[in-house]
Design brief:
- Helices cover about 30% and strands about 20% of the residues.
- The strands form four sheets. Strands 1, 2, 3, 4, 5, 6 and 17 form a seven-stranded mixed sheet that branches. The protein has a five-stranded parallel sheet with strand order 8-15-9-10-11, with helices on one face.
- It is globular.
- It starts with a helix and ends in a 25-residue tail after the last helix.
- The structure holds flavin-adenine dinucleotide (FAD).
- Flavin-adenine dinucleotide binds next to helix 2, strand 2 and strand 4.
């Protein structure tokens, strides 16, 4: 199997895409800026699973004048090979996404092509290294135009287009790109920041790190590690510290009990994933306020990986009220008394807060937030959720105040910050096959509608006869060329 299996699969993919290629022609009229440069139809920032799936969706809709940029090196896109410290994805192996429902493009097809059906049946969950290798295979097989080591810095309006500023990290070259549409598929925390409670933030940095950061685990050998938070990343990091040889690892959580119910499993049905976004504000807020306050459970494997160590401890009802550095030790003051640790790992997730992102500089001041658009009834207030962007029906930003930044509708967001408006959508494998087609359809709709005058004229001028009459041979114009895999 191995490479030959993959080769056979790639031929299958080519046949499958060819069979569903209708209609085959590019249809978006080329646009040029004032200096004669070709304007992109869409620029996608982020070459992770989200950006790749959106690129795939656009190419399937014959929107081919696109670029996908990522500041990471090839293979280091996303969290998987950087700060993700679990062995496998947490999602069930059957969850498909970037394939957009083409069976030969699924992770299962990729895995079976190399290892066989029996190995697939035996597989519990997807190893993160395999997920990355699969995403790179998908990107190469679909010839998605990804450029690595290119950083998006900001976007500004310029006439009817957007002017995006990119920096090529290899040589520092600054490039200005004009594009009609922009998609920010920049990662789970990329609409805000990794959040650290103030009690920790004031401590010297030698005492702590966040789970979203690089951590020197070998330096934790023989030390007492305290982890704050009881989500999947907190436990993944606790287990990594234990495996690295920490003397003891204690996980502290604010709640009296571990959250072991995964509410996001409940909502994994097409009705919710496809049409949550079509509900009114009251229902969308009510559901997401409940779900995002419940927090997520983590898989059994994650618990067993940490709890299986004799020097692991769980401290519930033990929020850190005060952290005090005394020499090389940190004293943790909690409602359950005082504890000590040599190093702290903060597993408290991220906070959505657009102004904190430098690349959102041109956007944050004008973008509508839920706090601008919806006043929840008494008892449902949630200051954290109020900072989530209030997005349009296909992930586009909306103006905080009318006519202050109409260009925002050309910018779409696909990070976790889309969750209050759409339910699970950006930064999730589970919801991708429902979320990406909606976003892509919005871009395709807008490109078509914005060119409607041109399409009308093109229709008026369309006179290609279906057949020639005797004496007309050689008169008609040739048919339009078919381009690439799509
Ligand atoms: C530790 C961890 C485990 C997870 N496990 C699961 C799971 O099992 N199942 C699940 O459904 N979800 C999971 N998720 C959630 C989600 O699926 C992942 O976060 C996933 O990586 C999101 O994909 P993405 O393409 O949206 O973002 P990413 O994969 O993070 O890709 C975003 C890319 O954007 C690039 N980028 C960011 N800013 C810029 C910029 N300004 N210029 C250029 N490039 C930029 C980054 O370099 C990155 O490569 C997990 C998340 C984390 C953090």
């Amino acid at each position: 199997m191995g490479d030959s299996g993959l080769k056979a699969l790639e031929s299958q993919v080519a046949r499958d895409l060819q069979r569903i290629a209708y209609p085959k022609s590019d249809w978006v009229p080329p646009r040029y800026d004032t200096s004669g440069g070709r304007v992109l139809d869409a620029l996608i920032v982020g070459g992770g699973q989200g950006g790749l799936a959106i690129g795939h969706g656009l190419l399937r809709n014959r929107v081919t004048n696109i670029r996908i940029v990522d500041r990471a090196e090839r293979g280091l896109e996303g969290p998987w090979m950087t700060y993700a410290r679990m062995a496998t994805l947490r999602s069930p192996k059957e969850v498909n996404g970037p394939d957009l429902d083409i069976p030969s493009l699924t992770f299962q097809a990729w895995f079976e092509a190399q290892h066989g059906a029996a190995a697939w049946l035996a597989l519990n969950k997807i190893a993160k290294e395999d997920w990355v290798a699969y995403l790179l295979w998908l990107r190469d097989t679909l010839k998605l135009p990804v450029e690595n080591r290119v950083e998006f810095q900001r976007v500004d309006p310029e006439g009817e287009y957007l002017r995006a500023t990119l920096v090529h990290l290899a040589d520092g070259r600054v490039e200005t790109v004009r594009t009609r549409k922009l998609v920010l598929a920049t990662g789970i925390e990329a609409s805000g920041r990794w959040w650290t409670p103030p009690v920790v933030e004031t401590l010297d940095r030698r005492f702590w790190a966040h789970t979203g950061e690089a951590i020197d685990f070998p330096a934790l050998v023989g030390r007492r590690v305290a982890v704050l938070g009881a989500g999947a990343s907190a436990f993944d990091n606790a287990a990594t510290a234990l495996e690295a040889g920490a003397a003891e690892v204690a996980v502290y959580c604010r709640r009296p009990d571990l959250q072991r119910v995964q509410p996001f499993k409940w909502l994994s049905f097409p009705g919710f994933l496809n049409h949550f976004a079509d509900l009114d504000d009251r229902w969308r807020w009510r559901f997401m306020n409940h779900l995002l306050s419940l927090r997520e459970a983590f898989p059994k494997e994650t618990w067993q990986r940490a709890a299986g160590h004799p020097n692991f401890r769980l401290e519930t009802g033990a929020v850190w009220q005060r952290c005090e550095a005394v020499g090389d030790v940190v004293r943790l003051h909690t409602p359950r008394g005082r504890f000590e640790a040599d190093f702290l790992i903060v597993g408290t997730g991220f906070d959505v807060d657009l102004p904190r992102r430098p690349e959102m500089a041109g956007i944050a001041a004008h973008a509508a937030l839920w706090g601008d658009r919806y006043a929840p009834p008494a008892g449902e207030e949630n200051e954290r959720l109020a900072r989530y962007p209030y997005l349009g029906s296909t992930y586009e930003f909306l103006e905080k105040s009318p006519d202050t930044a109409p260009w925002l509708r050309h910018v779409r967001l696909f990070t976790f910050a889309t969750t209050v408006s759409f339910g699970p959508s950006g930064a999730s494998v589970n919801a991708m096959k429902f979320a990406v087609p909606r976003l892509v359809s919005g871009i395709v709709r807008d490109l078509f509608h914005e060119d409607i005058d041109g399409h009308w004229q093109s229709l008026q001028a369309y006179d290609l006869p279906e057949f020639l009459l005797p004496g007309e041979e050689g008169a008609a114009a040739p048919a339009k060329p078919v381009i690439g895999l799509f």
